[in-house]
Every structure is written in structure tokens, then in C-alpha cells.
Specification:
255 residues; mainly alpha; 11 helices; globular
Length: 255
């Protein structure tokens, strides 16, 4: 019974991390700013990259920061205040994993979540700031030169546990990084197929579904096609005022 708190506290902390991760800021920010639901266009992913396809950079930045914070804050709280409750590095890693899983399968949004890139970045930054910086740099470098956010995310997910093992050695963080990395790559399966086929959307590219309807026209409010012309009826031909037949046989009135 004396060991119960050492089992209960990590479990409760992990559940709390999952509930925080279940908050889908992509949907909340989009609704607050009057934008379309990010699950209805582009990749259908409620994440910052897909929100960017709506054309609103502010909404995308807010989504990115908030998604990262929901992974960063729970882990940071455990790291700062968990020692007095017997919560160490292993619990902090589990809390981060809980937040990540909450983003993937959010309780509050019918378990339909995003791919977890920003949330995973927040978790890694809180667990190991230097590792987080190296992982973010990897993503930025690949995404900048390739213009594919998904490619940068996949490469970063694969390299993060390798960075940790090579520089800081084995530990509970490595196990969590491996699980998150495998899930990230799995969630990007469709993106991998598109990358191989050359059909993956690039950074800054607006989704067709998020753009104005194709039938609209700035030149004419009625759009293209026959109905777009202002005068669709035919004008009658003008007849000449001089009618030769009327003057050729003039009628003589009889008195």
C-alpha cells in the first residue's frame, strides 16, 4: 500500500497529459477566426500545416504554438514539481507521450486528431531542450529546402531517438521518442505515398477546397458561360426608313 502513490501519481499525471493533448487548437482557432474547419479541406488534418492552406498565416502560427505548448507545459510541470511526489524523468516522458496520444486521438473531438508534429516538438523541448533544438533545426532545414513540411517531420521523427542515444545515452526518453517517431511516420503514410508520386502539397500552397469557387468571376458577377453575358437576347434588326416598295406604286385617292 505504501507504493500505491508511486503507481497512482504517474498514472494520474499521464491521464492529465492525455486530456490536455485532446484539445484540438486547430479546430478551435479556425472557428474563433471564422475559418473553415481544417478537417474539411486539404489533407483533412487538424494541424498547423493544413490550417496554413486556408490562407491565414496568423491562424497557422497560433495553432502551431498552442499545439506545441500542450506538449511542452505538462512535461515542464512534472519536471519542476514532480520530484516531491516521486515523479521523475520516466513519468515526465510518459506525460509527454500522453499529450502526444491525446493529439492523435482526442477525447473531445471523437478521437479524430492530427499527426502530432507540433505536440511532439513541444514534448521533446521540455524533456531535453538541446535535443528539441536539434530536432527543430532538422525539420526547418529539410522543410525550407524541399518545401515539404511532411518530409521534414518524417526525417525529424526518425532522427530524434538517434540523436538522444548518440549524445545522451539510453533511458526512458529514448523509448518514448521511438514510440512517438513510429506513430508520426505511420500517421504520415498518405504523405509518403504523395511524396513518392510527386503530388504532395508544398508549404504555402492553398488547398483547392479552401480557395474561392472556380465558377466565380471578377470580370462579371454572373461568372463564365452564356449566363455571364449581360444581354443574352437578340435585338431585332433595324429596318430602313426608305421603303422602295412603298413608293413604287403609290395609291391615288379617289375623290
Amino acid at each position: 500500500m505504501q507504493d500505491a502513490p508511486y503507481i497512482l501519481y504517474p498514472l494520474l499525471a499521464s491521464v492529465a497529459g492525455y486530456l490536455v493533448g485532446s484539445i484540438s487548437f486547430a479546430v478551435i482557432v479556425s472557428r474563433a477566426m471564422g475559418l473553415a474547419d481544417p478537417r474539411s479541406y486539404g489533407s483533412g488534418n487538424p494541424g498547423a500545416t493544413n490550417v496554413l492552406r486556408s490562407g491565414s498565416k496568423l491562424a497557422a502560427v497560433l495553432t502551431l504554438l498552442l499545439d506545441a505548448l500542450k506538449g511542452f507545459v505538462p512535461v515542464l510541470l512534472v519536471s519542476l514539481f514532480g520530484a516531491r511526489y516521486g515523479l521523475g524523468e520516466g513519468t515526465a516522458a510518459l506525460v509527454g507521450l500522453g499529450a502526444f496520444l491525446g493529439h492523435l486521438w482526442p477525447l473531445f473531438f471523437r478521437f479524430k486528431g492530427g499527426k502530432g508534429v507540433a505536440t511532439a516538438a513541444g514534448v521533446i523541448l521540455a524533456l531535453n531542450p538541446l535535443l528539441g533544438a536539434a530536432t527543430l533545426f532538422t525539420w526547418l532545414l529539410i522543410a525550407y529546402f524541399s518545401r515539404y513540411s511532411s518530409l521534414g517531420a518524417i526525417a525529424s521523427a526518425a532522427l530524434a531517438p538517434i540523436y538522444q542515444m548518440m549524445v545522451w545515452g539510453m533511458g526512458p526518453i529514448v523509448g518514448v521518442l521511438v514510440v512517438m517517431g513510429l506513430l508520426l511516420i505511420w500517421r504520415h503514410a498518405a504523405n509518403i505515398k504523395k511524396l513518392l508520386n510527386g503530388t504532395e502539397s508544398r508549404l504555402g500552397q492553398k488547398s483547392a477546397a479552401a480557395q474561392p469557387p472556380a465558377g466565380s468571376s471578377k470580370k462579371h458577377p454572373n461568372g463564365p458561360g452564356p449566363a455571364a453575358h449581360g444581354h443574352s437576347h437578340k435585338h431585332p434588326k433595324k429596318t430602313s426608313s426608305h421603303n422602295p416598295s412603298a413608293n413604287s406604286n403609290p395609291k391615288v385617292s379617289k375623290k
